[in-house]
Amino acid sequence: MLLEAVRADARLAKWLKDLEREDDAGVAVALPDADELPGVLLDLAVPHEDINELVALRARLGRDAEAMTLLARCVTRFVRDMGEIGKACEPPPFPDSAGALGRFFPLYVYVASVPYVRAYHRERGVPEEVTRRTLADLGRQVAVHRRRRGTGGLLFPWWPALHFHGELFQLGRLQFQRGRLGERTGRAVASAGRDLGPGDPCLNLHIPDFQGPLSPSACERSLALARDFFARHYPDERHEIAVCHSWLLDPQLKRYLPADSNIIRFQDRFEAAYEEATPDDGVPIGFVFGDPDLPVAGLPRRTSVERAVADHLRGGGHWYTGHGWFVL
Asked: Are 324 and 268 within 8 A, CB to CB?
């Protein structure tokens, strides 16, 4: 059974106990049945090749009373603070011993949460098109898992929590997460003369995969959409600063890519907030080549970005997360 594998993990056993103490009154939790589930999954952009397995696992899940109780508790905790920044209940990764149902269990939590996030979006007046494209990131994450592991699942089950909790929205090419300035970025913004600092609202920019080029025109359109969207739907929040924490902001990329490349033009929008001292080579390898554990010696050099990442590492260099901000 699913929970036997979960309880065998000390960290997850504590998570289970914490959930059991939650008040689960007042939230109706239901999963679509086998006939309805394929349509719901397709609306969430879950790849076609994973639909049959998810429908079959839905039947197994329904026969496991303990797992269904856990699902209800997860959904209840997840939707209780809908829209509040930093309050999402993030499903942890289950151990491999939990099998296929463990790989997909967080996805069922998100599917059962769909009616609540849609209701929240309607309350805020969020257009249906924005809702659809935002929640479709769930399917993108299943595709990322398959690209890296060869099976369906969620590689980072905590990531879609932002989308399904009213904290992150897909607006054109970019994703925008309602957040707050961290200590170091906030100090950098204040030092630049802005009347803002640590703890003040901001928008965190994310660059989703499988979305085509990061062209300047696509970024401009996204930023224009974001300015209008958050002023219209979150007028009580002061979103003057956009921030980004990404390997794409590593200034070392300017050694390898031309000044008019999409990545460098994206970098040029930002003021540096602070420098990262700890290298993280696996992040660019994972994003560019699909698997962070690939050996450096065998990395292909088919594109300018592939050549930049691979040649820098082969030359003994490292890649770092860049931290930047700009005024919206």
From this structure: no
Helix H, strand E, coil C: the string for 64-85 is CHHHHHHHHHHHHHHHHCCCCC
Distance between CA atoms of residues 169 and 38, nearest Å: 24
The pTM of this model reads: 0.94
Instruction: Give the model's confidence band at 197: pLDDT under 50 very low, under 70 low, under 90 confident, else very high.
Output: very high
Long-range CB contact pairs, 223-231, < 8 A, 24+: 223/174, 223/328, 225/171, 225/172, 226/171, 226/174, 226/176, 226/328, 227/328, 229/130, 229/169, 229/171, 229/176, 230/176, 230/178, 230/203
Q: Which amino acid is at 201?
A: P
Q: Are 73 and 24 in contact (CB under 8 A)?
A: yes
SS3 259: coil
Report the percentage of the chain scoring pLDDT > 90: 80
185 contacts 199 by C-beta, under 8 angstroms: no
Q: Distance of CA 294 to CAs 14, 286, 299, 315, Å?
A: 33, 8, 7, 16
Exposed, middle or buried: residue 327 (CB in 10 Å: 0-12, 13-18, 19+)? exposed
Strands 174-180, 201-206: parallel, antiparallel or unpaired by DSSP?
antiparallel
Please compute, for residue 47, the number of CA atoms within 13 A of its CA located in the half-sphere on the CB side.
17
Using 50, 70 and 90 to split pLDDT, how confident is the model at 17?
confident
On whether the CB atoms of residues 225 and 172 are closer than 8 A, the answer is yes
pLDDT at 79 over 70: yes
Tokens of 19: 């959930």
**Cα gap 260→271, rounded to integer Å:** 18
